[in-house]
Amino acid sequence: MEQHLLGTDFQNPVLLAAGTCGFGQEVSEVVELDRLGGLVTKSVTLEPREGNPAPRVAEFRGGMVNSVGLANPGARAVRDRRLPWLRDRIRRARVLVSVAGHTPEEFVEVIRILDDADGFHAFELNLSCPNDTRRGGLPFALDPAEAARVVEGAREATQRPLVAKLAPNTPDLAPVIQAVEEAGADGFTLVNTLPGLVLDPETGRPALGAGAGGMSGPALRAVGVHAVWRARSCTRLPLLGVGGIARGPDAAQYLLAGASLVQIGSASFWDPRTPGRVVNWLKGYLGRQGAGGLTELVGSARIPGSSPPTPDSR
Ligand SMILES: Cc1cc2nc3c(=O)[nH]c(=O)nc-3n(C[C@H](O)[C@H](O)[C@H](O)COP(=O)(O)O)c2cc1C
C-alpha cells in the first residue's frame, strides 16, 4: 500500500482533503489520523478570514455545495498554534499545508511565514477556490499565466514539494498543467469543487448564505476521474485524485486513471469512518488484483485511444 512520491513515503494512498479536516486536531477524536496516508489542512491565507455568511454548506441529492469563504486563523496563528499540534501528534501520516491568496505575492508571504516550522511535509497550492470573489470569481487555475506566477513565486520561497490544486471547470487542462509544471510544481491535485447553485423553489432564495458555492460529493466523481486521466496524458508528475470518493471502488477508479494518491472530502462529513474503510477496501482489492504493489495499478486503466505516461516517483 506504500507510495513513494514527493520525496517521502505515504504508508497508504488515502488522505483527507483540504478544508474538510481543519488542521487535523478538529477531527482527531473521530478519525485515527495515523492510520491514513495523510491529510491536507484547511487553506491558509495571510490574514485571518472570518469566512462567508451562514449557511455555509447545503446538501442536495448528488452531493453538497459549500461556500465557507476560506475561513481560517491566518498564517501566523497556524504557524504558532496549529502546526505544533501536528508536529507533536502525527507520526506516520504525511501533512500537506494548503495555501491560498488573492495575489501571487500573498501565496509567497504565507509560504515564507510557514516554511521554517515543523509538522508538515509539503505545500498544496489552492489555485482553484471557486469562493474567492476578489478575482471576479476566476480562480488562478483557469488562467495558466497567473497560475504559473503563483507557482514561480512559491518555488523561489521554499524547497518543500509544491502540489498545485487545479479546477475542474476548464475546457482543457493541458495549458495550465504545462505552465505550472514549467514554473516548478512537483505534482497536481485534481479536482477542486465545481461552481454550483442550489435554490429553494419555495422562496427563490439560494440555500447558501453567500449564494453560489462549490459543488462536491458523488456528482463530482466522474469529472474528477476524467480530469486525472486527462492530466496523466500531459504530465509525468504525480497526481492526487479527489472528488466524490465515498467508497473503496471510487478510490480505485482514481488510481486506475493515474492518481498515485487520493483524497476524501465530503464523504467524511457524512461518515468519518469513510477514509479508514477505503484504506481497508483497497488492501483487499490489491490482493485480489494480484498487483505487485499499488504503483503497478496506477494509470493502468485501459481506455481506448490513450496511452498515458507512467508517473515519476520523486
Ligand atoms: C466544506 C468544504 C470546504 C473546503 N475547503 C477547501 C479549502 O480550504 N481548500 C481547498 O483546496 N479545497 C477545499 N475544499 C475542496 C475539497 O478539498 C475537495 O477538493 C472537494 O470537496 C472535492 O472532494 P469531495 O467530493 O470528496 O468533497 C472544500 C470542500 C468542502 C466540502
How would you characterize the overall build of this protein?
The chain has 314 residues and is of the alpha/beta class. The protein has a single domain (3-297), classed as TIM Barrel (Alpha-Beta Barrel). Helices cover 31% and strands 18% of the residues. It is built from nine helices and 14 strands. The strands form three sheets. It has an eight-stranded parallel barrel, surrounded by six helices. A four-stranded antiparallel sheet has the order 5-6-12-11, with no helix packed on it. Helix 6 (248-257) links the parallel strand 13 and strand 14. The longest helix has 16 residues, at 274-289. The radius of gyration is 18 Å and the shape is globular. Bound molecules: flavin mononucleotide.
Number of domains: 1
Mean pLDDT: 94
Helix count equals 9
Radius of gyration of CA atoms, rounded to a whole number: 18 Å
Beta-strand content bin: 15-25%
- In the CATH scheme, the class would be Alpha Beta
The beta-strand count equals 14
**Helix content percent band:** 25-40%
Inertia-based shape: globular
**What structural class do the secondary elements suggest?**
alpha/beta
Largest sheet: 8 strands, parallel, barrel
Hetero compounds: flavin mononucleotide
H/E element sequence: EEEEEEHEHEHEHEEEHEHEHHH
Strand order of the largest sheet: 3-4-7-8-9-10-13-14
* CATH-scheme architecture: Alpha-Beta Barrel
CATH superfamily: Aldolase class I
Measure the end-to-end span: 17 Å
CATH topology: TIM Barrel
- Low-confidence runs of at least 5 consecutive residues: none
